[in-house]
Write a structure and sequence with these properties.
The complex is a heterodimer of chains A (251) and B (327).
Chain A (H helix, E strand, L loop, with lengths): L1 E5 L2 E3 L21 E3 L1 H15 L5 E8 L3 H11 L3 E6 L6 H15 L3 E5 L10 H9 L2 E11 L5 E8 L2 E8 L2 E5 L11 H7 L4 E4 L12 E7 L8 E3 L2 H10 L5
Parallel strand pairs in A: 1-4, 1-6, 4-5, 5-11, 6-10, 7-10
Antiparallel strand pairs in A: 2-3, 7-8, 8-9
Helix pairs in contact in A: 2-5, 3-4
Chain B lengths: L1 E6 L8 H13 L4 E8 L4 H9 L4 E9 L5 H15 L3 E5 L2 H13 L5 E4 L1 E4 L2 E6 L4 E7 L5 E5 L1 H4 L11 E4 L2 H6 L5 E8 L12 E5 L6 H14 L2 E4 L1 H5 L20 E5 L5 H7 L4 E6 L6 H4 L2 E4 L2 H14 L6
Parallel strand pairs in B: 1-2, 1-4, 2-3, 3-10, 4-9, 5-9, 12-13, 12-14, 14-15, 15-16
Antiparallel strand pairs in B: 6-7, 7-8
The chains are: A alpha/beta (251), B alpha/beta (327).
Subcellular location (chain A): Mitochondrion matrix
GO cellular component, one term (chain A): mitochondrial matrix
Organism (chain A): Chloropicon primus
Chain lengths: 251, 327
């Protein structure tokens, strides 16, 4: 079977973000960009399905400007076989992304689409669920374990839920979104980075896929949250307990 | 009107996500309110439905019963059908794993973009939601057609009071919707709930959280003892979870739980951005850390620089002297 895996290019998780002074968004110029950490977990899972002999081909998909190609190259260096880059400079929201994935799924015919549960920029946590609905497929969100049945009819997914873990059995094809504990993504080795340069990346546009990407949600403005002013450093446990009791009134 | 979707957690009472959902609808969204209570057979769904039916502004409560746990595939189909009949302007549910799993799927069936993790309703179409792990706040306007499908953060709406004076009728699902519950795309297999006598992390008045400096699972027990003295819950940083000291459902942070208790005590937590996003709205923050330069001190109301292994026993003893008994 074929596995499609989504990879999003986002501001690196360790970089400090700056809100633009005009409030139009977050400044992405001269900031380190990386693959969304949840997408790394998705790539790792896809590649490990291939290594276990369960998947024949892993296709990494990214959508966005020219530079998104770097993110696809990273996925290829981790072990994906080929890439698809949906090239656009327009702002993409989850509904549009899911619609474009749907179009790619119809063409590529994968049995599993693996996506991160959320991207660490917009924190939406939507694309996988929307895609599953659009395809009328089953969904295994926030996965911490993925076990594909030998007959490839079903996949058993353990999900991280608020009060513990939950296990569901999904009919394939399915959309699976990854949570933190699913695996530890590998680092791309230098030989694999070199090899990845030769792997193929197809380019398409939203128009090729027949998708109107006009957002249904307009961003009016972005601002920094009110800074919490630091308090005082106390010298002893006695002083701490005294402040909590008599100043903060929480004891 | 507004269609509220409430998860029956089993106790018959509104949990933090359910309360936030109803508060948001009652105070900020168009009336009347219609509520769907998703409940597990034999798990107190009727009682929860009665609680919801007693809230001001609620016109009707529909109970959607399921065997086993909740599955998004059938539940979204049922809601899609109910939305078609009721034609609400808004559909709202909590930003819990239940709501996050369900709401985008429902929105997709309606072909509209969902708005998740809302922390403020500016007007009926305009909302504030945090992005970049809470390092920025985005004000967004829904300009699509169809209802606004949204999830709301418990920490943002949960502290407001619910008005009760309603006497709505309670219904079971109709035949058409019942048939949709039998979707065969997925099957619920089982669950492993974290057993705890303590209050739930996202509803606790006091949260005691530990980081990597705790060093071991065994040492986390010191936090449990302190939490029990104060009637609180125990949380953890992602670093502690990644190091295998505690399960992921204890994780406080952008990718874990977002909490806003009256008292948050961060012990041996350096204060990575992703952790701060999960607790910075707490009323009073205490940081205990060996490293005086740790970023957590920048946001803490009270910081104590010291070795947690000597501070904690002392703190516990002082609290006991104040009447907070050890359990």
């Amino acid at each position: 079977m074929r596995v499609l895996v989504g990879v999003k290019r986002v501001i690196d998780y360790a970089a400090k973000i700056r809100v633009k002074p005009d409030g139009s968004g977050v400044d992405k110029a001269n900031v380190k960009m990386s693959m969304n950490p949840f997408c790394e977990i998705a790539v790792e899972e896809a590649v490990s399905l291939k290594e276990k002999g369960l998947a024949k081909e892993v296709v990494a998909v990214s959508m966005g400007p020219q530079a998104s190609q770097d993110t696809i190259r990273t996925a290829l260096a981790m072990g994906a076989d080929r890439g698809i880059h949906v090239v656009t400079d327009k702002e993409l929201q989850p509904l549009a992304v899911a619609n474009m994935f749907k179009s790619l799924v119809e063409k590529e015919d994968p049995k599993i689409v693996l996506l991160g549960k959320q991207a660490i920029d917009d924190d939406c946590n939507q694309t996988g669920q929307i895609l599953a609905a659009k395809l009328n497929w089953s969904q295994g969100t926030f996965a911490s374990s993925v076990v594909v049945g030998d007959d490839q009819e079903k996949v058993v997914v353990t999900r991280e839920v608020d009060d513990g873990l939950e296990t569901v059995s999904l009919k394939l094809p399915a959309v699976i979104t990854t949570d933190l504990r699913l695996n530890e993504p590998r680092y791309a080795t230098l030989p694999n980075i070199m090899k990845a340069k030769k792997k193929k990346i197809d380019k398409v546009t939203p128009e090729d896929l027949g998708v109107d990407v006009t957002p249904q949600i307009e961003v009016l403005h972005v601002k920094e949250p009110e800074a919490r002013s630091g308090g005082v450093v106390v010298e002893s446990v006695d002083e701490l307990v005294d402040k909590l009791k008599n100043e903060a009134g929480v004891l | 009107g507004t269609l509220c979707v409430v998860e029956g957690s089993g106790a018959g009472e509104l949990d933090a996500a359910a309360k936030a959902t109803m508060v948001c609808a009652q105070k900020h969204l168009p009336k009347p309110i219609w509520a769907v209570v998703a409940s597990r057979s034999g798990a107190g769904g009727e009682d929860l439905a009665k609680s919801v039916a007693g809230l001001e502004g609620v016109e009707k409560v529909v109970v959607a019963e399921t065997e086993g746990g909740f599955l998004a595939e059938p539940l979204s189909a049922v809601l899609h059908s109910l939305v078609g009949k009721q034609d609400p302007s808004h559909v709202v549910t909590g930003s819990s794993t239940f709501g996050k799993n369900l709401a985008p799927r429902l929105a997709a069936l309606l072909d509209c973009a969902p708005v998740t993790d809302v922390t403020e309703v500016v007007d009926e179409k305009t909302f504030v939601r945090p992005i970049y792990a809470g390092n920025a706040l985005s004000t967004v306007k829904f300009v699509g057609s169809g209802p606004v499908v949204m999830t709301v953060r418990a920490t943002a709406f949960g502290s407001e009071k619910l008005e009760s004076s309603g006497e709505a009728e309670i219904e079971q699902l109709g035949e058409e919707e019942k048939a949709l519950m039998g979707s065969n795309l997925s099957e619920w297999v089982g669950e492993e709930k974290t057993e705890s006598e303590r209050p739930l992390l996202d509803a606790a008045r006091v949260v005691i959280s530990g980081g990597r400096a705790l060093k071991s699972e065994e040492n986390f027990k010191m936090l449990e003892e302190l939490a029990d003295q104060l009637g609180g819950a125990v949380g953890a940083s992602r670093a502690a979870v990644d190091a295998g000291m505690c399960p992921n459902d204890m994780q406080v942070g952008q990718t874990g739980k977002v909490v806003a208790p009256e008292l948050y005590v961060a012990i041996g937590i350096s204060g990575a951005v992703q952790h701060l996003a999960g607790m910075k709205d707490s009323k009073t923050i205490v940081a205990i850390n060996k490293d005086a330069e740790a970023p957590i001190f920048k946001i803490a109301d009270y910081g104590l620089v010291g070795d947690l292994f000597t501070v904690l026993p002392e703190l516990s003893a002082k609290l006991e002297a104040l009447g907070y008994e050890k359990k």
